Amino acid sequence: MPDHPILQIQPLGFPWQTLDPFLFCAYHDDAYPQGNAQMGPATSLAGRDLGQDFSRKDGWSMYHGGTVPGFPSHPHRGFETVTVVRKGLIDHSDSLGATARFGQGDAQWLTAGRGVVHAEMFPLLDETRPNPLELFQIWLNLPARHKMVAPHFTMFWSQAIPRLTAQDDQGRETEVACIAGTLAGAGAPLPPPPDSWAAQAEADVAIWTLRMAPGARWTLPPATGKDTRRMLYFFKGRSAAIAGQTVSAPQAIELRAGVPVELANGETEGEFLLLQGRPIGEPVAQYGPFVMNTQAEIMQAMQDYRRTQFGGWPWADEAPVHGRERPRFARHPDGRHEEIAGD
């Protein structure tokens, strides 16, 4: 069926494979135990390769952390990270002088541009109960003309993210959160960073999360761009009918972007991530945390980082955490401070 809305289906691995303009998506779902006095796991770390622990032992990993799980200071150049935290908290620090604690539905959008160093640590604040953490980190490419722009730090707090709650004819709900892109009925979209591919009028970038009640039906509207590509990640649930075709989770489903697609969830709650955008269509050269257009630019990035440390690391610790009692907050590079009440 050449005109069927589904173009391909593939199983989810780690990280998730993406389509241009996205580079990849890392999904972390860690069942961390109660915390200790240092905000790390209150359990033995024996048997873990600390500094490089992606073991999923007991349902969680330390990643590059030694005491607190997470990712101590590391550089990026040439793309953007979009981090959406669904459960738990991240303590962020960077070479711009920005710090933040965010989570519980918040999103951070960091344009690395010509170079930034940041740390993302996962403090386990609760000493009496488990500390689950669930997040997406999505890498969005920058076009060649913007790869060397100034870095930019952006916070999208949960209460400001546009959301749509739709009911089908049986009253079963689908909830859509729109980190990027326009969705009728969800309210005005949030402005992406100024040099992002998502900020370009023709880019048609969307980053949405969907939660569907058991048996719920909802029609995914068509994208507006002629060349837009669209991937739907069915990452939680049992099964769903996508344009009439039964799909079992976890799977990545590439869809024809220009047509509406009916989603009919199965008997358990289903959750999806949608990534779409018009391809940048340029060569991609990548070496670890650097994404440029040529190998010569990658070599230059490595030399620049060795020489300048992308401005240097202004914090005493390579893996900063922000204290046990501090609520969600952000201190921006210009000194502006936000604190989120109600934690």
From TrEMBL:
Coiled coil: none annotated. Residues 66-140 form the Pirin N-terminal domain. It holds the Pfam family Pirin. Gene3D superfamilies: Jelly Rolls. Residues 324-343 are annotated as: Disordered. Residues 208-311 form the Pirin C-terminal domain. This is Pirin family protein. It comes from Variovorax terrae.
